[in-house]
Amino acid sequence: xxxxxxxxxxxxxxxGIYILTEKKTVYTQxxxxxxxxxxxxxxxxxxxxxxxxxxxxxxxxxxxxxxxIYAVAIGLIFAIEIAAGVLAFTMxxxxxxxxxxxxxxxxxxYRESKFQDLQLLIxxxxxxxxxxxxxxxxxxxLNLYFNCSAPSPEACGVPFSCCRTDTINRQCGFEIETNxxxxxxxxxxxxxxxxxxxxxxxxxxxxxxxxxxxxxxIVAICLATGxxxxxxxxQKRNKRIAKAEAQDQRRIxxxxxxxxxxxxxxxxxxxxxxYPKFGG
Length: 280
Hints:
By secondary structure, the chain is mostly helical. The protein is built from 10 helices and no strands. 19% of the residues are buried. About 2% of the residues have low confidence.
């Protein structure tokens, strides 16, 4: 299981690094990486890679230090997930407001050349979730290109991804706010509202999935801790065996040196005199 997560982390990290490499001229001017999916991919992939790497190396090389890091990291993630769940339940209104603000910031960045992958992400989300904007299609008024004061054909409009049609028509959202049939042409409900509705209607499935993830993390912590304890016991046993072997080797070495030393004949003479029956 840990190897699978390690491979997934390598894939995520590789995708993020590839996108960053392709956009290296843009990133010299990038000031806000928190809204950039590529940066998020790299951060998430790197953290997951380091954690799973410690788990794999610790298990393969029987390294107590790596296993400790792995267990502590999984424990911290477990604690963060529990805390996030409690906060999400107790501070739902503030959480919605924070997500709403982030989505509106993303809407403001839409159409900027250095946020092209963010634009793709927004279009994909609106198309798949069948929504428009954060709370409502009117959120697109915040964007410079879609505001009614904008000197462009897109003024008082929305992106094409808000349109209900399955075929891509990049002009279907132009001047949509002045269209009396807008409710049949575009999705008017916001993506945050749609996501909330989906979450509430699939609460049981989300809860079971979250519980399974938490159980897997507990199992990973127990396995890492158990393996670490077994390794420590084995190391102590090996040290005792090595110490006993070293003592035996010293005794053998001392006896051999004594037998080959020039004091040995004198000792044999004294022994034969004091203990005649052992002499000769």
